[in-house]
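User: I'm designing a mutation panel for Isoprenyl transferase and want to avoid disrupting the core. Could you give me a predicted structure to guide residue selection? Please restate the sequence first so the numbering is unambiguous.

Assistant: Good idea. Sequence first, for numbering, then the predicted structure tokens:
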Amino acid sequence: MIQRLKDWLVGYQSAPDKDDGEWIPHLQDGPLPKHVAVIMDGNGRWAKKRGLPRMAGHRAGMKSVRHVTRAADDLEKIEALTLYSFSTENWKRPKDEINYLMSLPEEFIRTDLDELVERNIQVRMLGNKEELPSHTVDAIGKFEEATADNTGMVLNFAMNYGSRFEIIQATRKIIDDVKSGKMNRDDVDETLFNQYLLTANLPEPDLMIRTSGEMRISNFMTWQLAYSELWFTDVLWPDFGRKEFFEAIQDFQRRSRRYGAV
């Protein structure tokens, strides 16, 4: 098993990015989402199909993070990309898997920070940092600090994130501000509520992508996805690359967004 994993990792490290120069000018001629949110699903099943440990699937999934980030940035008009990295429910997974997932931000810094800075991408974390290991929080902090002055696309990692937790926390803060006299109860509307969410100052997602064939949103940005276009694919996350991302954008461009109107 160990040798098999080593052999596979060699292939992973040299795996080419999927690219098609015809996609970008074609898609840039149409409407592009300002914010794309992605539920990255299927790493474990991808590994199981190949007789590999689940961690190998997560490592392969990092390749797709890289490809999709580049693809979104290359389209130039996407303002934010949010990747659902670790949910508040994922703590139920085996401890060794959790430990590996918590180490990925440190690895990502080593492999990708320079490129993100060069691309002028700003990295942010959405989620509850209090429950994360200190080394994970430190790595995330280094990412945020190193890219804080960047003015290009915002890359959000939703880590230890759950939409219900986010909404409850926002509600508690609003209650506290009403009690303290900072605002009146009648001041609370959708616009104000948005400012108390972790996604404050970001456009709401125009497009939500979920891989692996599952058709649910799994406690991910339930408030923000109210009018998002949803795009589901059977492709497992480690197999999801530029071509698949561009296909999702193309499908988005074919849709008519009515927001409840005729």
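For picking mutation sites, this is relevant: The longest helix spans residues 95-118. The two ends are 58 Å apart (CA to CA).
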